[in-house]
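Subject: Sanity check before I submit

Could someone independently write out the structure tokens for this chain? I want to compare against mine line by line before I put it in a report. The sequence has 112 residues.
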Amino acid sequence: QVQLVESGGGLVQPGGSLRVSCAASGFTFRSYLVSWYRQAPGKERDLVARISSTGGITTYADSVKDRFTISRDNSKNTAYLQMNNLKPEDTAVYYCTANGYWGQGTQVTVSS
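---
Independent answer below. Compare away.
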């Protein structure tokens, strides 16, 4: 059974940091590109960052470039999104996706 499980979300003050994780099971994780998306209330789900199967190629949305870092550990079947200098506009549910599957999402709230 294929599963993607996000974790690590929470409430953080502006300027703070969080790392969210995406644990995969049920497929050959190392063979697939992984993407992080986010969806704020009333808005569409937008691409945040993407990482190639080996981790050698990463891409970012302009809005998070130089603040967020996507990475993966294929030995642990896990992908990460390190988020620094968080802003209120980063508040959203964050989802990971790979191999056509999606996780359930983790809420990130940036507020003082």
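---
OP: Matches mine. For the report I'm noting this point. The mean pLDDT is 97.
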